[in-house]
Here is the input.
Amino acid sequence: MTKLTWLVTGCSSGFGKDFVHSILARGDNVIATGRKAAERLAHLKDTGATILDLDMSTSEEEINTKAQEALKIYDGIDVLVNNAGYIDFGFVEDFSYDRWLAQITTNFLGAVTLTRALIPHMRSRRSGTIVNNGSMLGWQSLPCCPGYCATKYALEAYTENLQIELAPFNIRSIVFEPGHFRTSIISPTNRTESYSSHPDYAPTLEMLRAHFDGNDGNQPGDPKKGVELMIDVVKGEGLAKGKEMPPRLPMGSDALEVVRKKCWETLKTCDEWEKAIKSTDFPADVPAYKYNGDEIASSK
Ligand SMILES: NC(=O)c1ccc[n+]([C@@H]2O[C@H](COP(=O)([O-])OP(=O)(O)OC[C@H]3O[C@@H](n4cnc5c(N)ncnc54)[C@H](OP(=O)(O)O)[C@@H]3O)[C@@H](O)[C@H]2O)c1
Here is the structure.
Protein backbone atom coordinates (compact mmCIF):
# COMPACT_ATOMS: atom_id res chain seq x y z
CA MET A 1 0.00 0.00 0.00
CA THR A 2 1.14 3.57 -0.66
CA LYS A 3 2.90 5.25 2.24
CA LEU A 4 0.57 7.81 3.79
CA THR A 5 1.48 11.04 5.55
CA TRP A 6 -0.56 11.81 8.66
CA LEU A 7 -0.84 15.00 10.69
CA VAL A 8 -2.11 14.42 14.22
CA THR A 9 -2.96 17.15 16.74
CA GLY A 10 -2.52 16.84 20.52
CA CYS A 11 0.26 14.22 20.56
CA SER A 12 1.79 14.75 24.00
CA SER A 13 -0.23 11.93 25.59
CA GLY A 14 -3.20 9.54 25.27
CA PHE A 15 -4.70 8.82 21.87
CA GLY A 16 -2.38 11.32 20.13
CA LYS A 17 0.80 9.70 21.42
CA ASP A 18 -0.52 6.22 20.59
CA PHE A 19 -1.47 7.41 17.11
CA VAL A 20 2.12 8.46 16.49
CA HIS A 21 3.57 5.09 17.57
CA SER A 22 1.02 3.05 15.61
CA ILE A 23 1.29 5.11 12.43
CA LEU A 24 5.06 4.74 12.44
CA ALA A 25 4.82 1.02 13.20
CA ARG A 26 2.72 0.64 10.04
CA GLY A 27 5.40 2.33 7.96
CA ASP A 28 3.64 5.66 7.36
CA ASN A 29 4.94 9.18 7.95
CA VAL A 30 3.59 11.24 10.82
CA ILE A 31 3.74 14.89 11.72
CA ALA A 32 3.10 14.92 15.46
CA THR A 33 1.84 18.28 16.67
CA GLY A 34 1.22 19.76 20.08
CA ARG A 35 1.72 22.66 22.44
CA LYS A 36 5.28 23.36 23.61
CA ALA A 37 6.42 20.62 21.25
CA ALA A 38 10.13 20.82 22.13
CA GLU A 39 9.28 19.93 25.71
CA ARG A 40 6.03 17.91 25.55
CA LEU A 41 6.72 15.94 22.36
CA ALA A 42 10.40 15.30 23.04
CA HIS A 43 9.61 11.64 23.78
CA LEU A 44 8.34 11.20 20.22
CA LYS A 45 11.35 12.74 18.53
CA ASP A 46 13.46 9.57 18.48
CA THR A 47 10.63 7.45 17.11
CA GLY A 48 10.91 8.90 13.62
CA ALA A 49 8.02 11.34 13.89
CA THR A 50 8.38 14.92 12.73
CA ILE A 51 7.49 17.31 15.51
CA LEU A 52 5.61 20.54 14.93
CA ASP A 53 4.59 23.08 17.52
CA LEU A 54 0.85 23.71 17.19
CA ASP A 55 -1.49 25.11 19.80
CA MET A 56 -5.07 24.54 18.66
CA SER A 57 -6.29 27.55 20.60
CA THR A 58 -4.08 29.96 18.71
CA SER A 59 -5.15 32.41 15.98
CA GLU A 60 -6.48 31.45 12.57
CA GLU A 61 -3.44 33.09 10.99
CA GLU A 62 -1.03 31.02 13.09
CA ILE A 63 -2.86 27.75 12.34
CA ASN A 64 -2.84 28.57 8.61
CA THR A 65 0.91 29.27 8.74
CA LYS A 66 1.57 25.96 10.54
CA ALA A 67 -0.58 24.08 8.05
CA GLN A 68 1.48 25.46 5.15
CA GLU A 69 4.67 24.55 7.00
CA ALA A 70 3.38 21.01 7.56
CA LEU A 71 2.46 20.56 3.90
CA LYS A 72 6.09 21.11 2.89
CA ILE A 73 7.55 18.50 5.26
CA TYR A 74 6.63 15.36 3.27
CA ASP A 75 5.23 17.01 0.18
CA GLY A 76 1.60 16.92 1.29
CA ILE A 77 -0.73 15.43 3.88
CA ASP A 78 -3.00 12.44 3.26
CA VAL A 79 -4.71 12.12 6.63
CA LEU A 80 -5.55 14.85 9.12
CA VAL A 81 -6.43 13.68 12.64
CA ASN A 82 -8.12 16.37 14.73
CA ASN A 83 -7.43 14.83 18.11
CA ALA A 84 -6.46 17.62 20.53
CA GLY A 85 -8.98 18.29 23.25
CA TYR A 86 -9.57 18.75 26.96
CA ILE A 87 -12.46 18.72 29.42
CA ASP A 88 -13.38 21.65 31.61
CA PHE A 89 -15.60 20.42 34.45
CA GLY A 90 -18.20 22.73 35.92
CA PHE A 91 -21.97 23.17 36.11
CA VAL A 92 -23.81 25.16 33.45
CA GLU A 93 -24.29 27.93 36.01
CA ASP A 94 -20.51 28.09 36.55
CA PHE A 95 -19.63 28.22 32.90
CA SER A 96 -18.64 31.80 32.09
CA TYR A 97 -18.49 33.09 28.53
CA ASP A 98 -14.69 32.76 28.66
CA ARG A 99 -14.85 29.12 29.70
CA TRP A 100 -17.23 28.35 26.83
CA LEU A 101 -14.97 30.22 24.44
CA ALA A 102 -11.87 28.35 25.59
CA GLN A 103 -13.53 24.93 25.18
CA ILE A 104 -15.00 25.79 21.80
CA THR A 105 -11.75 27.31 20.54
CA THR A 106 -9.55 24.32 21.34
CA ASN A 107 -11.91 21.39 20.80
CA PHE A 108 -13.88 22.70 17.83
CA LEU A 109 -12.70 25.92 16.16
CA GLY A 110 -9.07 24.79 16.16
CA ALA A 111 -10.07 21.62 14.30
CA VAL A 112 -12.28 23.57 11.90
CA THR A 113 -9.52 26.07 11.14
CA LEU A 114 -6.86 23.44 10.54
CA THR A 115 -9.23 21.43 8.35
CA ARG A 116 -10.09 24.50 6.28
CA ALA A 117 -6.39 25.25 5.85
CA LEU A 118 -5.78 21.76 4.41
CA ILE A 119 -8.89 21.33 2.25
CA PRO A 120 -7.54 23.23 -0.81
CA HIS A 121 -4.51 20.92 -0.85
CA MET A 122 -6.63 17.75 -0.58
CA ARG A 123 -9.16 19.06 -3.10
CA SER A 124 -6.46 19.81 -5.67
CA ARG A 125 -5.11 16.27 -5.23
CA ARG A 126 -8.61 14.77 -5.30
CA SER A 127 -7.73 12.68 -2.25
CA GLY A 128 -7.48 12.94 1.51
CA THR A 129 -9.04 11.78 4.76
CA ILE A 130 -10.19 13.93 7.67
CA VAL A 131 -10.55 12.18 11.00
CA ASN A 132 -12.28 13.95 13.88
CA ASN A 133 -11.93 12.53 17.35
CA GLY A 134 -15.41 13.06 18.72
CA SER A 135 -16.94 11.26 21.68
CA MET A 136 -19.95 9.28 22.82
CA LEU A 137 -20.63 12.58 24.60
CA GLY A 138 -21.48 13.88 21.12
CA TRP A 139 -24.59 11.67 21.48
CA GLN A 140 -25.42 12.09 25.14
CA SER A 141 -24.41 15.05 27.27
CA LEU A 142 -22.96 14.44 30.68
CA PRO A 143 -23.69 16.82 33.56
CA CYS A 144 -20.77 18.98 34.61
CA CYS A 145 -19.00 19.32 31.28
CA PRO A 146 -21.42 21.30 29.08
CA GLY A 147 -18.68 22.98 27.04
CA TYR A 148 -16.94 19.72 26.23
CA CYS A 149 -20.17 17.96 25.21
CA ALA A 150 -21.23 20.89 23.03
CA THR A 151 -17.93 20.77 21.15
CA LYS A 152 -18.31 17.03 20.55
CA TYR A 153 -21.86 17.53 19.24
CA ALA A 154 -20.53 20.31 17.02
CA LEU A 155 -17.84 18.00 15.61
CA GLU A 156 -20.59 15.55 14.61
CA ALA A 157 -22.39 18.22 12.58
CA TYR A 158 -19.16 19.55 11.11
CA THR A 159 -18.12 16.08 9.98
CA GLU A 160 -21.45 15.65 8.19
CA ASN A 161 -20.85 18.93 6.35
CA LEU A 162 -17.42 17.76 5.29
CA GLN A 163 -18.81 14.43 4.12
CA ILE A 164 -21.43 16.04 1.88
CA GLU A 165 -19.31 18.89 0.54
CA LEU A 166 -16.04 17.07 -0.01
CA ALA A 167 -17.17 13.67 -1.28
CA PRO A 168 -17.19 14.94 -4.92
CA PHE A 169 -13.45 15.58 -4.52
CA ASN A 170 -12.75 12.10 -3.15
CA ILE A 171 -12.04 13.51 0.33
CA ARG A 172 -13.39 11.22 3.05
CA SER A 173 -14.32 12.29 6.59
CA ILE A 174 -15.25 10.38 9.69
CA VAL A 175 -15.98 11.15 13.32
CA PHE A 176 -14.96 8.52 15.85
CA GLU A 177 -16.98 8.40 19.06
CA PRO A 178 -14.90 6.86 21.84
CA GLY A 179 -16.54 5.88 25.11
CA HIS A 180 -14.41 6.02 28.25
CA PHE A 181 -10.79 5.22 27.36
CA ARG A 182 -7.94 4.88 29.81
CA THR A 183 -5.97 8.06 29.08
CA SER A 184 -5.15 10.87 31.49
CA ILE A 185 -7.98 13.10 30.22
CA ILE A 186 -9.91 13.04 33.50
CA SER A 187 -7.01 12.52 35.86
CA PRO A 188 -7.11 15.06 38.71
CA THR A 189 -3.73 16.47 37.67
CA ASN A 190 -4.80 16.92 34.06
CA ARG A 191 -8.41 18.06 34.19
CA THR A 192 -9.56 21.63 34.39
CA GLU A 193 -12.36 22.15 36.91
CA SER A 194 -14.10 24.89 38.78
CA TYR A 195 -17.43 24.39 40.54
CA SER A 196 -20.05 26.55 42.07
CA SER A 197 -19.69 26.77 45.81
CA HIS A 198 -23.47 27.03 46.16
CA PRO A 199 -24.72 24.31 48.50
CA ASP A 200 -27.61 23.54 46.11
CA TYR A 201 -25.11 21.79 43.85
CA ALA A 202 -23.27 19.92 46.59
CA PRO A 203 -25.07 16.56 46.28
CA THR A 204 -24.67 16.43 42.47
CA LEU A 205 -21.06 17.50 42.74
CA GLU A 206 -20.32 14.81 45.28
CA MET A 207 -21.91 12.18 43.05
CA LEU A 208 -20.06 13.37 39.94
CA ARG A 209 -16.70 13.61 41.70
CA ALA A 210 -17.13 10.03 42.91
CA HIS A 211 -18.03 9.02 39.35
CA PHE A 212 -15.02 10.72 37.75
CA ASP A 213 -12.54 9.66 40.41
CA GLY A 214 -13.82 6.08 40.28
CA ASN A 215 -13.65 6.08 36.50
CA ASP A 216 -10.13 7.51 36.26
CA GLY A 217 -7.77 4.62 35.53
CA ASN A 218 -10.68 2.16 35.33
CA GLN A 219 -12.08 3.16 31.96
CA PRO A 220 -13.01 0.10 29.87
CA GLY A 221 -11.41 1.36 26.66
CA ASP A 222 -7.79 0.64 25.72
CA PRO A 223 -6.49 3.66 23.79
CA LYS A 224 -3.90 1.57 21.92
CA LYS A 225 -6.65 -0.68 20.57
CA GLY A 226 -8.78 2.39 19.82
CA VAL A 227 -6.00 3.90 17.76
CA GLU A 228 -5.37 0.63 15.91
CA LEU A 229 -9.05 0.50 14.99
CA MET A 230 -9.08 4.13 13.79
CA ILE A 231 -6.03 3.50 11.62
CA ASP A 232 -7.57 0.28 10.30
CA VAL A 233 -10.69 2.19 9.30
CA VAL A 234 -8.68 4.85 7.47
CA LYS A 235 -6.50 2.28 5.70
CA GLY A 236 -9.20 -0.37 5.16
CA GLU A 237 -7.18 -2.96 7.04
CA GLY A 238 -7.79 -5.42 9.89
CA LEU A 239 -11.40 -5.34 11.14
CA ALA A 240 -12.18 -2.68 8.52
CA LYS A 241 -10.96 -4.74 5.57
CA GLY A 242 -13.53 -4.89 2.78
CA LYS A 243 -15.81 -2.39 4.54
CA GLU A 244 -16.69 1.10 3.39
CA MET A 245 -15.69 3.86 5.78
CA PRO A 246 -18.80 4.72 7.87
CA PRO A 247 -19.76 8.36 8.52
CA ARG A 248 -19.28 7.87 12.27
CA LEU A 249 -18.08 5.02 14.45
CA PRO A 250 -18.65 4.54 18.18
CA MET A 251 -15.70 2.91 19.94
CA GLY A 252 -16.05 0.75 23.03
CA SER A 253 -18.96 -1.17 24.55
CA ASP A 254 -20.08 1.83 26.61
CA ALA A 255 -20.26 4.02 23.50
CA LEU A 256 -22.24 1.35 21.68
CA GLU A 257 -24.77 1.26 24.50
CA VAL A 258 -25.12 5.05 24.61
CA VAL A 259 -25.58 5.35 20.84
CA ARG A 260 -28.09 2.47 20.66
CA LYS A 261 -30.09 3.86 23.60
CA LYS A 262 -30.23 7.33 22.02
CA CYS A 263 -31.39 5.86 18.70
CA TRP A 264 -34.11 3.78 20.40
CA GLU A 265 -35.29 6.74 22.50
CA THR A 266 -35.39 9.01 19.45
CA LEU A 267 -37.31 6.46 17.39
CA LYS A 268 -39.72 5.98 20.31
CA THR A 269 -40.34 9.76 20.45
CA CYS A 270 -40.85 9.83 16.67
CA ASP A 271 -43.39 6.99 16.88
CA GLU A 272 -45.26 8.27 19.93
CA TRP A 273 -45.37 11.85 18.66
CA GLU A 274 -45.73 11.19 14.94
CA LYS A 275 -49.17 12.79 14.69
CA ALA A 276 -48.08 15.95 16.56
CA ILE A 277 -44.82 16.16 14.64
CA LYS A 278 -46.60 16.01 11.28
CA SER A 279 -49.35 18.41 12.42
CA THR A 280 -47.20 21.45 11.57
CA ASP A 281 -47.04 20.73 7.81
CA PHE A 282 -49.12 22.70 5.33
CA PRO A 283 -52.02 20.62 4.03
CA ALA A 284 -51.11 18.94 0.74
CA ASP A 285 -53.77 20.96 -1.18
CA VAL A 286 -52.36 24.38 -0.20
CA PRO A 287 -50.65 25.82 -3.31
CA ALA A 288 -46.89 26.28 -3.31
CA TYR A 289 -45.65 29.85 -2.90
CA LYS A 290 -42.42 31.68 -2.58
CA TYR A 291 -41.52 32.73 0.96
CA ASN A 292 -43.33 35.94 1.87
CA GLY A 293 -44.68 36.89 5.27
CA ASP A 294 -48.03 38.18 3.92
CA GLU A 295 -48.62 35.07 1.86
CA ILE A 296 -47.91 32.90 4.90
CA ALA A 297 -50.36 34.95 6.95
CA SER A 298 -53.06 34.52 4.31
CA SER A 299 -52.44 30.81 3.64
CA LYS A 300 -54.93 28.35 5.10
N1 LIG B 1 -10.06 9.30 26.84
C1 LIG B 1 -11.34 9.28 26.62
O1 LIG B 1 -12.12 8.64 27.36
C2 LIG B 1 -11.91 10.00 25.44
C3 LIG B 1 -13.23 9.72 25.08
C4 LIG B 1 -13.78 10.39 24.00
C5 LIG B 1 -13.02 11.28 23.29
N2 LIG B 1 -11.73 11.53 23.66
C6 LIG B 1 -11.00 12.52 22.87
O2 LIG B 1 -9.71 12.08 22.55
C7 LIG B 1 -8.88 13.22 22.33
C8 LIG B 1 -7.55 13.00 23.03
O3 LIG B 1 -7.79 12.91 24.42
P1 LIG B 1 -7.08 11.83 25.34
O4 LIG B 1 -8.12 10.99 25.94
O5 LIG B 1 -5.96 11.20 24.61
O6 LIG B 1 -6.58 12.75 26.54
P2 LIG B 1 -5.15 13.39 26.87
O7 LIG B 1 -4.16 12.31 27.13
O8 LIG B 1 -5.40 14.38 27.93
O9 LIG B 1 -4.73 14.09 25.52
C9 LIG B 1 -5.24 15.33 25.14
C10 LIG B 1 -4.27 15.93 24.18
O10 LIG B 1 -4.81 17.17 23.69
C11 LIG B 1 -3.80 18.14 23.80
N3 LIG B 1 -4.28 19.51 23.88
C12 LIG B 1 -5.09 20.08 24.81
N4 LIG B 1 -5.25 21.38 24.53
C13 LIG B 1 -4.52 21.64 23.42
C14 LIG B 1 -4.27 22.80 22.63
N5 LIG B 1 -4.78 24.00 22.96
N6 LIG B 1 -3.48 22.70 21.54
C15 LIG B 1 -2.94 21.51 21.20
N7 LIG B 1 -3.10 20.38 21.91
C16 LIG B 1 -3.90 20.46 23.00
C17 LIG B 1 -3.03 17.77 25.04
O11 LIG B 1 -1.76 18.42 25.00
P3 LIG B 1 -1.10 19.18 26.29
O12 LIG B 1 -0.16 18.18 26.88
O13 LIG B 1 -0.42 20.35 25.71
O14 LIG B 1 -2.22 19.55 27.22
C18 LIG B 1 -2.93 16.26 24.85
O15 LIG B 1 -1.89 15.95 23.96
C19 LIG B 1 -9.65 14.43 22.83
O16 LIG B 1 -10.21 15.14 21.76
C20 LIG B 1 -10.76 13.80 23.65
O17 LIG B 1 -11.92 14.60 23.69
C21 LIG B 1 -11.18 10.92 24.72
